[in-house]
Amino acid sequence: MLKGSCLCGVMAYEIHSDLGPIVMCHCSRCRKASGSAFATNAAVNTKDFKLTSGEGFMAEFESSPGVFRVFCGNCGSPLYSRRQITPEIIRLRIGTLDTAIEGKPSAHVFVGSKAEWHEICDDLPQHSERP
Fold first, then answer.
1. In contact, 123 and 82? CB cutoff 8 Å
2. Which domains occur in the chain, in start order?
């Protein structure tokens, strides 16, 4: 089991499965939502994700049609995103994990729209969009 939380600690969650592939997303929406050059995400089956505290603080924003970004309404920490067309999967922001993981990022996605000021300095595969 993996555990995670938001910055202020009011929202906490558990994951009762392994993480999917970890990817670094460079799309403009992830950059805006994270305030950084990219967001580091992993797919998680919705059925394996359990919010253990802070449900009343959960907020979400529809960043594009059918795509919702879920965050703590108290501290603003982004927790995950969900898509209406794939309700069985969420994309967890792995920076919110409190449990150490062994997995490493496997790829960069949406590098076709990456920040011009950021240079990718690793040998991971780079995809112009989502493969």
1. no
2. 2-20+40-103 (2.170.150.70)
- Bridge partners of 131, per DSSP, are none
Per-residue pLDDT tens digits for 34-45: 999 999 999 999
- Reduced to 3 states (helix: H, G, I; strand: E, B; else coil), residue 87 is coil
Furthest C-alpha separation in the chain: 42
End-to-end CA distance of the chain: 28
The string of pLDDT tens digits covering residues 48-68 is 999 999 999 999 999 999 999
Contacts of 116 (CB under 8 A, 6+ apart): none
Residue position matching structure tokens 């995670």: 4
Q: Is the dihedral of CA 83, 84, 89, 94 positive or negative?
A: positive
